[in-house]
Specification:
Layout: H1 19-31, E1 33-39, E2 48-59, E3 64-70, E4 75-80, E5 84-92, H2 101-104, E6 106-113, H3 119-129, E7 136-141, H4 142-152, E8 168-170, H5 173-202
Antiparallel strand pairs: 1-2, 1-5, 2-3, 3-4, 6-7, 6-8
Amino acid sequence: LGWMPPYATVPSIARRVDPLKLRKVLDVIRTGSAIHVEYQSLSRPDPLWRWLTPHALAFDGFRWHVRAWCHTRNRFQDFVFARMLSFDETKPDQINAEHDVEWQRFLTFRIGPHPDLGAAARKAIELDYGMERGEITVDTRISLSFYLERRLGLDFKPEDVRPERQQIVLLNRDEVDEAQRLAKAETAALASEYIHINKDQKDGI
């Protein structure tokens, strides 16, 4: 441009990603393997060793996550990368990432101004977000939709928050909730099949 105006940005807290751990996770994803991970969860005071089979990485706007099959809880879920304290051995695995329906399937958020805003405020919000006909659409993987809701404040009911504080709302709440419910149920059903097959293999059947 030849000239730069004074500018500033809101500070953000960097979430650290260890490059050596990242390289290890990428290798495990590439080879379709499981890895023994020491993980610090929010629900336990001490870290727990568990087997994970990662198949993807995800960024929620603040933190990096590893999307993986958890052999302890027998389900696909997200693991915060920074909470992976150390790695141990790896082993071959048979998890099919296509069975993670919540990851594979997308849904659309329809977002509009808070209904209790006045006409001038609604117009301002529509301009801020580039809305057309009073709304904007955002596509996201279902497994990431919860993070998007939280990041934009869409997890609050419009009647529970002042419009000046939460200026946008989710217009298709029922549709989003149903898509999330169905994807979770389908993922659980496919996971159940895998659990039985895996158990039979371990039992020598």
